[in-house]
Design a protein that fits this description.
The protein has 14 helices and 17 strands. The longest helix is centred in the middle third of the chain and has 26 residues, at 218-243. The chain is α/β, with parallel strands linked by helices and 477 residues long. α1 packs across α12 and α6 packs antiparallel against α13 (427-447). The chain is globular and about 85 Å long. The chain has a 9-stranded mixed sheet, sandwiched between helices. The protein has a 6-stranded parallel sheet with strand order 3-2-1-4-5-6. A two-stranded antiparallel sheet has the order 9-10. It binds 6-O-phosphono-beta-D-glucopyranose. 6-O-phosphono-beta-D-glucopyranose (BG6) binds next to loops. 6-O-phosphono-beta-D-glucopyranose binds next to loops.
């Protein structure tokens, strides 16, 4: 149902995500006049707090996490905030929540940013309090389960109260401007699509490298690991956007129909197609950092790095490997997609070194698109023409100066409030993602795979380099 919400009800309103991302995003939207005039934001969490205490909490978060030049109208924004304590594990507080929401229960957007173990009780409480009617939509923050079975359980619990058209599963990578730009690049230019297939593309690389370590999420991370924390969601979403067929429109179902076909075409990995690693002490950006087990204060078999060689069993991508890698405490923070084209079938330039074209889509921290082309080195060529690969670069911030970089959640929260589902993940996508990930974990368990150590500040264990190099491929660094 299409409506713009009057109230945003935020579960987990005192949590880390709310402080770092959600409140800053909402305030930034407000500063740009993008929030609906009447929108109220009701925060809820376990701790008792008055409205004014919550506003103080929010002010401190904004001052810390939102740049000063994006805090215009902060006082007005804070006035939109209200707070109602509720312990979701008891059913008692939900009526008070319904009272706090008031008349907006027919135009309500809910965002569950709590531990997934609390989703089921929260949804049941909402349903009983009359907060799951036709005029309510619900956003769910990841992780949506730890495997296919638990994800199905969560999806079933949500589906018991909300139809799919009112469920908004977040993958914050889909809110990133450059990730959406990938669709623009592919489907708003006639240049790439005819070449976007196994005839012309040799392989694709997707890297999501982080320099951070465990941060404050020790227990969560140790029970999760890189495969489930990053590959199951963000990386598979990137892969599906790179590989999908052209959807008929940018509407929710056409886009998601195409993504899910890609996810279902993922071939189960063979035993030698994955490498896992765990960082030990080292230096990142000139700073000495401890190893994972030192941060954790115990030994662990959890992977903080994973590299995979994936294949899609469909016509377009037959024989084209997709190399994926992600890790914590790596050499630098970079998210990028590299599309490596094939070499020309025959070189007329005898003796010249030919390099295949390569498209690099930088997602973060730099937003840029670079296409390498072969060009003639200037000169009179008495010994034959010399060629060199030169980049055709587009730095997005320069191309679009005057616009500012937005937090991914700005887009996603606004879409939730306005009911636009295109950038949210559908149930069949999440489940296809989990099915593929579960099979990898089963394979690891069968083989007794242990993560290989790598130095913090490196690009991961040498086995990850070998994974690509045995196919004659080098990771783009
Ligand atoms: C989260 C993961 O989903 O994404 C984190 O749980 C990771 O471990 C984060 O650090 C990365 O997001 P971004 O936007 O900084 O690339």
């Amino acid at each position: 149902m299409s409506f713009t919400a009057d109230t945003l009800l935020l579960f987990g309103a005192t949590g880390d995500l709310a402080r770092r991302m959600l409140l800053p995003s909402l305030c930034a939207l407000d500063a740009d006049g993008l929030l609906p005039e009447k929108l109220r934001i009701v925060g809820t969490a376990r701790s008792p707090m008055s409205d004014s205490e919550y506003r103080n909490f929010a002010r401190a978060a904004l001052e810390k996490f939102l740049p000063a030049n994006r805090r215009g109208r902060m006082a007005d924004f804070l006035n939109r905030l209200h707070y109602q304590a509720n312990d979701v594990t008891t059913s008692e507080g939900f009526d008070a929540l319904a009272t706090a929401v008031g008349d907006s229960k027919d135009r309500l957007a809910i965002f569950l940013s709590t531990a997934p173990s609390l989703f089921e009780v929260s949804i049941e409480g909402l349903r009983q309090a009359g907060l799951a009617g036709q005029g309510v939509r619900i956003g769910l923050e990841k992780p949506l389960g730890i495997d296919l079975a638990s994800s199905r359980e969560i999806n079933d619990a949500v589906a018991a109260a909300f139809p799919e058209a009112r469920i908004f599963r977040i993958d914050h990578y889909l809110g990133k401007e450059t990730v959406q730009n990938l669709l623009a690049l592919r489907f708003a230019n006639s240049l790439f699509e005819p070449l976007w297939n196994a005839t012309h593309i040799d392989h694709v690389q997707i890297t999501v490298a982080e320099t951070v370590g465990l941060e404050d999420r020790v227990d969560f991370y140790d029970q999760t690991g890189a495969l489930r924390d990053m590959v199951q969601n963000h990386m598979l979403q990137l892969l599906s956007l790179v590989a999908m067929e052209p959807p008929s429109s940018f509407e929710a179902d056409p886009v998601r129909d195409e993504k899910v076909k890609v996810l279902r075409a993922l071939r189960p990995l063979a035993a030698n197609e994955s490498v896992t690693g765990q960082y030990r002490g080292g230096a990142v950006g000139g700073q000495i950092v401890p190893g994972y087990d030192e941060e954790l204060k115990r030994d662990s078999g959890t992977e903080t790095f994973v590299a995979l060689k994936a294949h899609l069993d469909n016509w377009r991508w037959q024989g084209v490997p997709f190399y994926l890698r992600t890790g914590k405490r790596m050499h630098e923070r970079v998210t990028e997609i590299v599309v490596q084209f094939r070499c020309v079938p025959h070189s007329i330039f005898k003796g010249a070194r030919m390099q295949p074209n390569r498209l690099v889509i930088g997602i973060q921290p730099e937003e840029n698109i670079s296409l390498s082309l072969m060009a003639k080195v200037p000169g009179l060529d008495r010994d034959g023409i010399a060629l060199r690969s030169v980049p055709l670069d587009i730095a997005m911030p320069d191309a679009f100066s005057g616009t500012h970089k937005r937090i991914a959640y700005e887009r996603l929260l606004l879409d939730l409030i306005e009911g636009k589902q295109t950038l949210f993940v559908r149930r069949d996508e999440v489940e296809a993602q989990w099915a593929w990930i579960d099979a990898i974990r089963e394979e690891w368990a069968r083989e007794g795979l242990q993560p290989k150590p790598y130095n913090a500040g490196s690009w991961g264990p040498s086995a990850a380099i070998a994974l690509a190099e045995r196919d004659g491929v080098s990771w783009h660094e």
